[in-house]
Amino acid sequence: MKRSLVQSILLYGCALLLAAFTTGPLLWLAVMSISAPTDLTEVPLRWIPSELDFSRYTSLLSLEGGNGERFLSALRNSLLTAGGATVIALLLAIPAAYAFSRRQASMVLLFAFLATIMMPPITYVLPLYSTFSSFGMLNHTVTLIIVYTAMLLPFATWLMKANIDVLPVEVEQAAFMEGAGTAYTIRQVVLPLALPAIAATAMLSFLVAWDEFFYALIFTNDLSAKTLPVAIADFSAGRVTDYGVIASVGVLATLPPAILAIAFQKFIVSGLVAGSVKG
């Protein structure tokens, strides 16, 4: 059905409005990061920088100086914790999702499993803090990887199960008739078919772990384990706040997940759509 001119104008107008609403804050963050300090404190606010200042990016990406050391340490810790938790969660979620989908495991157990992520994070802080403190594991990236894995596992299992449900069972049955075991079938048959779902689950899990702030704030206290969200808060905690530095850290912090999203865009879209329709 062909759209009328008015409908087309409304459709593209809404699309442009949505694009401006979602990209506007990010664009303003980029402008702040290259604006002079006086531009950010003028009244009325100067929307266009009087001069371009890239010195903040130079200092943040340099090992010489406090800002660079703080940022690069936090970047390393965020990559280790988010990436490690995502990989471990996927390794555990894929066989669990297969069991729930193909072996008719109890759905009550699955819902109970999923209910753990519905509790407020603060309810877990005291037992987790006491446990990690008794083992001397506070202020370690391994601690955050364990916490993030537990946080991501129910979500990853649920999303993978929804996608495995729509995969053709006949292909797996053919593999079983040829003498293949369950582990071989999952590795050689299910995983190639579920690759879009795995990419979507990995991307969403990585974003959740990358942006997590509460547990990282509670369980870390120095550069050896602090992640980027906590480091950004530290940059804004001084007596004299340089908003341009905070904006520069924010821009750099968006690059890793943005690069991953662009690289796996095709898989992410198809993976999310595949689990929504049963054929």
TrEMBL record:
Organism of this sequence: Roseibium aggregatum
Gene Ontology biological process terms, A to Z: transmembrane transport
Keyword terms of this UniProt record: Cell membrane, Membrane, Sugar transport, Transmembrane, Transmembrane helix, Transport
Family indicated by similarity: Belongs to the binding-protein-dependent transport system permease family. MalFG subfamily.
Pfam families: BPD_transp_1 (PF00528)
GO CC annotations, alphabetized: plasma membrane
Domain ABC transmembrane type-1 intervals: 75-264
Annotated TM spans: 9-31, 79-100, 107-129, 141-160, 189-210, 243-264
Gene3D superfamilies, per database record: MetI-like
Bilayer topology: Multi-pass membrane protein
Origin superkingdom: Bacteria
Known role: Part of the ABC transporter complex MalEFGK involved in maltose/maltodextrin import. Probably responsible for the translocation of the substrate across the membrane.
Protein name per its UniProtKB record: Maltose/maltodextrin transport system permease protein MalG
Cellular compartments annotated: Cell membrane
